[in-house]
Specification:
There is one protein chain. The strands form 2 sheets. Strands 1, 2, 3, 5, 6, 7, 9 and 10 form an 8-stranded mixed sheet that branches. α4 runs antiparallel to α5 and α5 runs antiparallel to α9. About 45% of the residues lie in helices and about 25% in strands. The chain is α+β, with helices and mostly antiparallel strands. It folds into 2 domains: about 200 residues, Neurotransmitter-gated ion-channel ligand-binding domain (Acetylcholine Binding Protein, Chain: A, Distorted Sandwich), CATH 2.70.170; about 110 residues, Up-down Bundle (Methane Monooxygenase Hydroxylase, Chain G, domain 1), CATH 1.20.58.390. It is elongated.
């Protein structure tokens, strides 16, 4: 019994002396003072594991990510003999000094605590401490949506010391760009991670200069979804509006129905594309430009029919008065006696003919040859100029409007598409 008790007591004493840190913690260790207090700054090396990026919100301009943050530093007060390392209970962190690292531009953050707090403390014999945390954070990301949905966004994850300036702590990446893991394996619904790199910087505040680490990554949006959802339907609506060019001008219900239906459908498509980004309507996005172009072509096709139909109706109305007075004039000339015409005054006859020609003729009249007052001459000149201006815009053959529209509308639409896609994809 004595031997066994002695053996147990010797094991207990050897285990107690081999446990690192406890003697230092009980012999003057002060967790409120950083290592090397009053001397050189503590060098803290960091590394990151990006577990997931769950959502990227254009309306709120932020992203939500789950990361594992690992920090390493050396505390000479926790040096012990041996070449081993010990993983301690996470609750022991309450007894140690830890850096006051925080995430810059974070809106909401929390530590995972299922089934226990997701923290890790590992102590090495040279006094190096590994402190790991699992965090989910929502970080602001300033986005430029002028090229949406063909845009590339640059977001950042910045780590900075809250209270200790560069005279107390310094931040470094553990292995440069290799300090970040998992980001190249991310699969996002709308984006593809193009590239990423790490930076070391400083934040100049009123209270001092603070160390800062930056992870910068570029996200390129996948445009195929928007092509199938928005670009293809809007293009087909424009092509549908061109069908009216092959329908005769007399088919008023058919052409009006096509024009109004395509305009309303395009309006619905524009409202639907903007509803998903209701809080970013202040931006003129690339998709808004394309939808505006398509709406202009559809509305132009409707206006084209209105112009062609109006010109056709005006031409038909102009033919009826020309045939009516001519037939009536022949009948009257048969009934009028020639002797009555000869008895009329030649001067009054000339004056009547001249004024009649001024009122009903659209040809130019030499107003200087007429014996009229000055204000009548001015009216005559203005009337001739108005007839000349109207003649410039008068469509002689309304059928040619549809003929030229069949060629010009598709050609101009293709040309606009070439400039649109070249600008937003390569500039």
């Amino acid at each position: 019994r004595r031997c066994s008790l002695g053996h147990v007591s010797s094991l207990h004493s050897s285990d107690t002396t081999s446990l690192p840190g406890f003697e230092n913690l009980t012999m003057g260790y002060n967790k409120y003072l950083r290592p090397y207090f009053g001397g050189k700054p503590v060098q803290i090396a960091m590394s990151l594991d990006i577990a997931s990026i769950s959502s990227i919100s254009e309306s709120n301009m932020d992203y939500t990510a789950t990361i594992s943050l690992r920090q390493r530093w050396t505390d000479p007060r926790l040096v012990f003999h041996g070449n081993t390392s010990f993983t301690l209970d996470a609750r022991l962190v309450e007894l140690l000094w830890v850096p006051d690292t925080y995430i810059v531009e974070s809106k909401r953050s929390f530590l995972h605590d299922v089934t226990v707090g997701n923290r890790l403390i590992r102590l090495f014999s040279n006094g190096t401490i590994l402190y790991a945390l699992r965090i989910t954070t929502t970080v602001a990301c300033n986005m430029d949506l002028s090229k949406y949905p063909m845009d590339t966004q640059t977001c950042r994850l910045q780590l900075e010391s809250w209270g200790y300036d560069e005279n107390d702590v310094t931040f470094t990446w553990l292995r440069g760009n290799d300090s970040v893991h998992g980001i190249e394996k991310l699969r996002l619904s709308q984006y593809t991670v193009e590239r990423y790199h790490t930076l070391v910087s400083k934040s100049q505040q009123e209270t001092g200069s603070y160390p800062r680490l930056i992870l910068q990554f570029e996200l390129r949006r996948n445009v195929l979804y928007f092509i199938l959802e928005t670009y293809v339907p809007s293009t087909l609506l424009v092509m549908l509006s061109w069908v009216s060019f092959w329908i005769t001008l007399d088919s008023v219900p058919a052409r009006t129905c096509i024009g109004v239906t395509t305009v309303l459908s395009m309006t619905t498509l524009m409202i639907g594309s903007r509803s998903s980004l209701s809080k970013t309507n202040c931006f003129i996005k690339a998709i808004d430009v394309y939808l505006g172009i398509c709406f202009s072509f559809i509305f132009g096709a409707l206006v084209e029919y209105a112009v062609a139909h109006y010109s056709s109706s005006q031409k038909c109305a102009a033919k009826v008065p020309q045939e009516g007075p001519a037939s009536e004039l022949t009948k009257e000339m048969e009934e009028v006696n020639i002797t009555n015409i000869l008895n009329n005054s030649i001067t009054s006859y000339k004056q009547k003919i001249s004024f009649t020609s001024i009122e009903i003729s659209s040809d130019n009249v030499s107003c200087s040859d007429l014996t009229m007052k000055s204000h009548e001459k001015i009216k005559c000149v203005l009337r001739n100029k108005m007839h000349r201006i109207i003649g410039y815009f008068t469509i002689q053959n309304p059928g040619n409007v549809d003929h030229y529209s069949k060629l010009l509308f598709p050609l101009f639409f293709m040309l606009v598409n070439v400039f649109y896609w070249a600008y937003y994809l390569y500039f």
